[in-house]
Amino acid sequence: MKRFIKPVKAAFLASVMTSVAVPAFAQADLAGAIRVGEQATRKAEQTQERINQLDDERSDMVREFRTLLQQKDAAALYTRQQERVVASQENELASLQEQLGRVEEIKAQMVPMMMDMIAAIKTFYAADLPFKDPTDDGKIDVRADRYEKLDEVMSRGDVSPAERYRLIIQAFQSEMEYGRTIATYQDDITLADGSVKTVDVFRYGRVALVYVTKDRKQLGRWDRDSKQWVDLPASYKSEILKGIRIADKVATPSIMMAPVVKLSAQ
């Protein structure tokens, strides 16, 4: 708002300048009129200052009102967004509640499936080469112990279905890994003649399982058909010993010859 100009004081000053020409008795009235004019001017100034103050306050209130409008719009936008989030969470909660209602049904279906998986892998284990996976001290056959534990966890109530399933999958993965690796270990085996000897056993993945005696004079392989150890000719000795050194990490990996027997699929 425009500020008022103050012309009143100038007018009264001009009157003072002309008062010298008037008689003395009129000067007193003129002085009183000047005082009244000055008072009116001061009141006008005060009024103008009040008007300016009110104008500033109005501007502040307009700015505050606009700020509140922006905050209101932001709050409305946030509310709509949160309503969508709540609706999504309610849908998810409904889905989870439905799934929880099917937990018992799923558990009932999982148990027969896991039993079938265990039966299948144990059948494969029984028909496979009879190699062992001993611990570092040689006291435990990890492979045989794994299948005993599978039977145990299926009968325990404190083992969750998820943990049972994990152990079964772990057993399948371990069996797959045996087919891609070589290994050697010491074992007491029963030969075809019924004698028991301590030998070094070497496994070519799942291709062949062979042994050589400690004195390196006798060697043989596991025969899948007769399910017993049979002798091998001495020509395989150097290859078997090389494989044992590679498995023990005292020789660099290289091509090895294995006593492979042709398999027929039934």
The separation of the N and C termini measures: 106 Å
Overall pLDDT, averaged? 84
Shape: rod-shaped
The Cα radius of gyration reads: 52 Å
The domain tally reads: 3
Task: Set out the fold topology.
Elements: H1 8-18, H2 24-101, H3 103-127, H4 142-154, H5 161-178, E1 182-190, E2 196-204, E3 208-213, E4 219-223, E5 228-231, H6 237-247
Antiparallel strand pairs: 1-2, 2-3, 3-4, 4-5
Question: Would you give an account of this structure?
Answer:
- Mean pLDDT is 84; it is low at 1-21.
- The chain has 3 domains: 1-101; 103-178, no CATH class; 182-266, no CATH class.
- Strands 1-2-3-4-5 form a 5-stranded antiparallel β-sheet, covered by helices on one side.
- Helix 1 (8-18) packs antiparallel against helix 2 (24-101), helix 3 (103-127) packs antiparallel against helix 4 (142-154) and helix 4 runs antiparallel to helix 5 (161-178).
- With 266 residues, the protein is of the alpha+beta class.
- It has helices at residues 8-18, 24-101, 103-127, 142-154, 161-178, 237-247, and strands at 182-190, 196-204, 208-213, 219-223, 228-231.
- It contains 6 helices and 5 strands.
- Strand 3 and strand 4 (219-223) form a beta hairpin.
